[in-house]
Specification:
mainly alpha; 3 helices; PrgI family protein
């Protein structure tokens, strides 16, 4: 059986994703971060704890990307 770990994705036409956060503003990233916190809290209140944990865990990377982008643009 083949060892699929060594297949080169570029041979099959799979291209790596480009950094798409350059198209988003700092305000959009911050709103997405706070929105994920809010949605995670609502989901937890309604009893969807696993989904709330996943959605809530997106807040920190989004907010840190917003802060990094704000500092990098100075």
């Amino acid at each position: 059986m083949e060892n699929l770990q060594f297949i080169d994705p570029l041979l099959h036409g799979i291209k790596p994703l480009e950094n798409n956060t350059k198209n988003l503003s700092v305000k959009q990233l911050a709103c997405a971060g706070f929105g994920s916190l809010l949605v995670g809290a609502v989901l937890k209140k309604t009893g969807h704890t696993k989904t709330a944990a996943i959605v809530g865990s997106l807040a920190l990377p989004l907010l840190s990307a917003a802060v990094y982008k704000k500092i990098a643009n100075k």
